[in-house]
Amino acid sequence: MRARRVRAGLKGWGGVGAMAAFCALALAFVLLLPRTQSHDEGAAGLDGPGVAEGHQAADAACKDKDAEKLTLSPSAADGDTIAAIKARQGEKRKLIVGVDQNSYRWGYRDPNNTTAALEGFDIDLVHRIAQDILGDPDAVQFKAIPTNQRIPAIQEGRVDMIVRTMTITCDRLSDVAFSAPYFKTGQQLLAPKSSKIKGYDATLADTKVCTAASSTANTRLTEDRDAGRIPKSVDLGTVVPNQLDCLVRLQLGEVDAVVTDGALAASQAAQDPTVELKGDPFTTEYYGVAMNKDADDLVRRVNRILVEYRASGWQASYDTWLSATLGTDATTSKPPTPAQYLRES
């Protein structure tokens, strides 16, 4: 195994020092709020029959490759959940959304921006949802939620939804409801350019790999190592609360590689010119907006918004935030419209 060494710091938009500082702030924003759960048993779909009627539930036969199809039909109708959001008074009349504030170009605070406002691809989607539901794109209370707190934040009523590069999986559908997908990606390796690691293969032998707790990367690597699909000698003991913490560990020489969504890994590589993506993505995953399982009307409304957003807004946001790291061709990143999934099911 190569000798550990302290690696060069980030360059460009602010560096790892700024990002590490933001990581330290993340938990300070996770505040407990009253639950705002309710359900809408009778919301009619406007774009065809839904995959599930009533409450969204994980199908016993669900496979992860099909999990993104298990959602509700789009609807513009207000139910109890949306009514409760709209009933909030004064400054509290906002959509409460769990996001990341440390994922470059997805949800982050640019230290070179004097307003320190959250920005990125996920943040654009949040503003679009707020505009539709409350008539004001800025009627949002953002809460920085660590990777391993996304599901608890929803279940405990701290947020109305999570828009934080969250992959739709069958296991997660047992705990939360998801919108239709708004982005397509896959797990990928990030390692120093000088590393012997070539991809998700035998070159991982005798290496230490970092993943985030409760992430699909952590689950997949553990399963694959146990099944012998990757070398048994891979050390998966470095598990952190936030996926960005893995990049810090990599830069400090504490691990040999990071596994996370390729879309996030590309953004991290853009922050540090001494690391690069290794090999091709080895999974296919879809990001969705996560909500409470009882919030059927909110799920339907978000799906309705996504139909419109994909047609007008998604591409502009991609061009602004992601084209520099993922390329100008968004074909492989843009999933079918929610309506297509629902009609085909």
Share of β-strand residues: 15-25%
Q: What's the oligomerization state?
A: single chain
Specify the biggest β-sheet.
5 strands, mixed
Q: Tell me the span between the first and last alpha carbons.
A: 49 Å
Q: Helix share of residues?
A: 25-40%
| DSSP E strands, number | 15
Number of helices: 12
Spatially, the strands of the biggest sheet line up as 5-1-6-15-7
Question: Order of SSEs, N→C?
Answer: HHEEEEHEHEHEEEEHEHEHEEEHHHH
Radius of gyration: 20 Å
Provide a descriptive summary of the structure in words.
This protein is α/β, with parallel strands linked by helices. The chain is 31% helix and 16% strand. It contains twelve helices and 15 strands. The strands form four sheets. Strands 5-1-6-15-7 form a five-stranded mixed sheet. It has a five-stranded mixed sheet with strand order 11-10-12-9-13, sandwiched between helices. A hairpin with a 3-residue loop joins strand 2 and strand 3 (107-109). Helix 3 (121-134) packs across helix 9. It is globular and about 55 Å long. The model is unreliable at 1-58 (pLDDT under 50).
Q: Which descriptors would you attach to this protein?
A:
345 residues, five-stranded mixed β-sheet, alpha/beta, disordered N terminus, 12 helices, 16% strand
In short:
This protein is an alpha/beta fold.
Layout of strands and helices, then pairs:
Layout: H1 15-26, H2 80-86, E1 95-99, E2 102-103, E3 107-109, E4 118-119, H3 121-134, E5 140-144, H4 150-155, E6 161-162, H5 170-173, E7 177-178, E8 183-185, E9 187-192, E10 208-212, H6 216-226, E11 235-240, H7 243-251, E12 257-261, H8 262-271, E13 275-278, E14 285-287, E15 290-291, H9 296-311, H10 314-321, H11 323-326, H12 338-344
Parallel strand pairs: 1-5, 1-6, 10-11, 10-12
Antiparallel strand pairs: 2-3, 3-4, 6-15, 7-15, 8-14, 9-12, 9-13
Helix pairs in contact: 3-9
